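=== RUN LOG ===
request id: a7f3
mode: sequence -> structure
chains: 1
length: 238
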Amino acid sequence: MPRDTLTREQIVRAAVAVLDAEGVGGLNMRRLGAQLGAAATAMYWHVKSKDELVVLAADHVWDEIELPDLDEVGWRAAAAALASGAHDMLGRHFWMVTAMSTHLIHGPNKARYDDRCLAVYEAAGFSGPDADQAAATMIMFVIGAAQGEAAELAWRARLRRAGADEEQELRETIARIGEIAQRYPRLRARSTPSVEAAPSLPDEATFEFGLGAILDGLEARLAANGHNRSQPESPTGR
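=== RESULT ===
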């Protein structure tokens, strides 16, 4: 594809596809050019560097999150929807957790999400720095909840790039984990003897438990400060 027919939007979308398959470590201009059928040098007419491209791709996927309408739902349901939307997005794009730890992610789509989060917590009764802290607490939980799955997917992507046997590496890793777990009674009781019975990553119920706990805490904080706006919703606000 000639460079004058490429657009930044095409390049960003192709970068997201490469990142989804291979992670941040697998993204480079040569790989991206192959994805688009263009010379690697053509990329530089639209983006300055790989780092800029990672930021653009990261901002792009924040647009996937549907923003709740505060005129239609209460603050708690809106907060739960925003958290779940971000968690689902991170699950679709495992590389985002890595990108957020190495890049300052910014852009109009990320700003759109952040602004709605602040609107939700202000509607709940938090003001000024307290609204900022409430929003920050929730997004830290969401990123932490997504980290385990993202780490495994990134690990698998590295193995594929290196041409390693994923299943063999998984068996050896589980064996090492099980051996270490035997030293500690509570871990020993939960240890897994085989790949077939490998422990699952935190599931949806675990995420819902943590989300509900944070929302309960925020609601209790509001009540303690005289802002009792509890609503007849489920524990997570859905």
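=== NOTES ===
The chain has eleven helices and no strands.
Confidence is low (pLDDT under 50) at residues 230-235.
=== END ===
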